[in-house]
């Protein structure tokens, strides 16, 4: 008898681990990668975790559970990754001990509770004080902050039941009970709405301070003028770091986060760039949702199944469209793996919205780093003119032999090139990510009205115009070769290479500029930085001078 999802979880604190095991099994089953032996192994581990009476806090403790072997440990390693100190805090609080300094409860990083708290906090920065259940779930899912699904599964054939009653379903949302009990969230109204308490705001800020990357929206800034308020609330600690003071609107207390200067400047630039997003044509007074439908376009080279590829891929895409109530089409895309178009409801004109996704499976990402394909691909994406560039990394890089190289590339891609790097656990998670992104993009555009208050940086290109521009980019020019040469300098990113080419399209033109400054090495080294208004960093400017002028002399 297949007892997946039928067992009661004895220790409630292990519910997220149980859900994680279910999710892994579900992914394997739906991609036809699961055998009877593997299913039996997973089911045994799942059953024993459900029966465990004590909390499983670490991978070592998990390894002591009967039925948990090396393979189970390997696929579960990502679940136990968390910030140092968080486990200790939770354990001491749950045992009823008074910790030094009265340390507060902190949810595990990338848990559902973690995602819900941060999502509610981000909502308050946008003026949304409370959210209804579905609104909160959609926003938290779209954020990518949780490693496990939040939405309760309601489809037939997916065994997520617990207990004896067919009406009882466990999902990531179940952790909301813990947040309410801990006094971090308050529930009110009918239908129910959820909002952060003062303590919840503090915990959300502390969670954010432990993030690997800091978003200026998460540090108490307003969307209306994020750059100004962010810099006003910053104090320079040194030449390399800034202390960011984040306001708690309820208590006027400030949380402190230390951030590298270059990260602060880059984040402000990225946010300002997103404020100038392009819109499809609208007549004065017209509302986007009355004129256009948003459609997700997937590249026809994308494969979402390993056997019977075309038929299964088509079925999977249809299921995603049905599940998320979105329109999905498959076409040949000259660049990227997914884009979104706005199609006129009556005239059928199509305009490409300001968002594109480049999807990279971990192994392919590793290979593209080695042969430098990923630099060329990012350069082409940047030249397409999209304001929102998403780099989607599929799979766990920790299991790759080039894990550090992949993580470094992700960091560089996000901070230096301005991409939004997002991660998914696997194929099904990627497809769901497409669904949530489509819903978020639709929500962003649908209420836009053509009037004097709408700010945009121009009109979205037509789909045919987008294709023509990409075809032009396929043609290799002298500037393309020059850009690839420039990117051999360690400090030169795709964005910096493009800035140099805008100033000096060829090697000869740049060498000539250095020639006129011959005798003044400092002026030569700083020339590109000065002429680009500091867009080109000092180290990159110096490195390019050494590359060009060193070869010319």
How would you describe the overall organization of this protein?
- The protein is α/β, with parallel strands linked by helices and 553 residues long.
- It is built from 23 helices and 12 strands.
- Helix 10 packs antiparallel against helix 11.
- About 18% of the residues have low confidence.
Radius of gyration: 25 Å
Strands, count: 12
Give the N-terminus to C-terminus distance in angstroms: 78 Å
Q: What is the number of helical segments per DSSP (H or I, 4+ residues)?
A: 23
What best-fitting shape do the alpha-carbon axes yield? globular
- Low-pLDDT stretches are 82-101, 154-169, 212-275
- Mean pLDDT across all residues, rounded? 75
Beta content comes to: 5-15%
What oligomeric state is this? single chain
Helix percentage range: 40-55%
Short key terms for the protein model shown above:
single chain; alpha/beta; six-stranded mixed beta sheet; three-stranded antiparallel beta sheet; 23 helices; globular
Write a short abstract of this structure:
The chain is 46% helix and 13% strand. It is α/β, with parallel strands linked by helices and 553 residues long.
Blueprint of the fold:
Elements: H1 15-30, H2 36-51, H3 59-63, H4 70-76, H5 86-94, H6 112-125, E1 131-132, H7 133-143, H8 176-181, E2 185-188, E3 193-196, H9 198-209, H10 226-232, E4 234-236, E5 241-247, E6 254-260, H11 261-275, H12 288-291, E7 292-299, H13 309-324, E8 327-331, E9 338-344, E10 350-361, H14 362-370, H15 373-383, E11 388-394, H16 403-415, E12 420-424, H17 427-446, H18 463-474, H19 478-486, H20 494-503, H21 507-515, H22 521-531, H23 538-552
Parallel strand pairs: 7-8, 10-11, 11-12
Antiparallel strand pairs: 1-3, 2-3, 4-5, 5-6, 7-9, 9-10
Helix pairs in contact: 1-2, 6-7, 6-9, 7-17, 10-11, 13-17, 14-16, 19-20, 21-23, 22-23
């Amino acid at each position: 008898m297949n007892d997946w999802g039928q067992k009661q979880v004895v220790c409630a604190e292990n519910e997220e681990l149980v859900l994680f095991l279910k999710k892994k099994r579900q992914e394997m089953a739906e991609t036809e990668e699961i055998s009877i032996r593997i299913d039996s192994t997973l089911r045994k581990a799942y059953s024993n975790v459900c029966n465990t009476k004590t909390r499983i806090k670490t991978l070592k403790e998990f390894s002591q559970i009967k039925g948990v072997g090396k393979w189970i440990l390997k696929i579960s390693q990502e679940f136990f990754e968390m910030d140092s100190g968080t486990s200790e805090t939770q354990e001491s609080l749950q045992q009823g001990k008074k910790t030094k300094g009265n340390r507060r409860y902190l949810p595990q990083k990338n848990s559902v509770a973690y995602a819900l708290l941060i999502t509610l906090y981000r909502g308050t920065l946008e003026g949304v004080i409370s959210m209804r259940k579905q609104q909160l779930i959609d926003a938290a899912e779209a954020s990518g902050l949780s490693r496990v699904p939040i939405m309760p599964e309601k489809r037939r054939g997916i065994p997520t039941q617990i207990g004896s009653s067919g009406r009882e379903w466990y999902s990531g949302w179940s952790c909301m009970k813990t947040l309410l009990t801990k006094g971090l969230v308050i529930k009110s109204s009918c239908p129910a709405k959820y909002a952060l308490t003062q303590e919840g705001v503090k915990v959300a800020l502390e969670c954010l301070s432990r993030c690997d990357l800091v978003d200026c929206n998460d540090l108490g800034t307003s969307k209306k003028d994020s750059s100004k308020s962010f810099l006003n609330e910053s104090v320079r600690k040194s030449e390399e770091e800034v202390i960011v003071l984040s306001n708690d609107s309820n208590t006027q207390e400030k949380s402190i986060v230390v951030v590298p200067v270059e990260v602060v400047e880059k984040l402000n630039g990225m946010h300002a760039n997103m404020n100038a997003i392009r819109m499809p044509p609208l007549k004065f007074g017209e509302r986007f949702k009355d004129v256009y439908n948003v459609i997700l376009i997937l590249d026809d080279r994308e494969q979402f199944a390993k056997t019977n590829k075309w038929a299964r891929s088509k079925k999977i895409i249809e299921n995603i469209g049905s599940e998320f109530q979105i329109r999905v089409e498959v076409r040949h895309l000259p660049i990227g793996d997914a884009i979104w178009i706005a199609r006129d409801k009556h005239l059928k004109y199509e305009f490409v919205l300001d968002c594109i996704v480049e999807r990279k499976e971990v192994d392919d990402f590793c290979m593209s780093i080695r042969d430098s394909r990923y630099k060329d691909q990012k350069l082409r994406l940047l030249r397409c003119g999209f304001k929102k560039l998403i780099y989607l990394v599929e799979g766990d890089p920790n299991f790759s032999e080039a894990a550090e190289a992949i993580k470094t590339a992700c960091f560089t891609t996000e901070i230096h090139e301005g991409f939004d790097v997002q991660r998914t656990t696997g194929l099904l998670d990627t497809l769901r990510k497409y669904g949530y992104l489509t819903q978020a993009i639709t929500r962003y555009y649908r209420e836009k009205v053509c009037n004097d208050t709408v700010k945009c940086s121009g009109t979205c290109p037509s789909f045919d115009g987008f294709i023509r521009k990409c075809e032009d980019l396929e043609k290799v020019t002298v500037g393309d070769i020059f850009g690839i040469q420039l990117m051999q300098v360690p400090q030169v990113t795709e964005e910096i290479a493009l800035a140099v080419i805008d100033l000096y399209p060829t090697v000869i033109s740049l060498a000539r500029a250095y020639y006129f400054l011959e005798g003044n090495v400092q002026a030569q080294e700083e020339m590109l930085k000065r002429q680009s208004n500091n867009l080109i960093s000092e180290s990159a400017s110096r490195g390019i001078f050494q590359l060009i002028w060193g070869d010319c002399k």
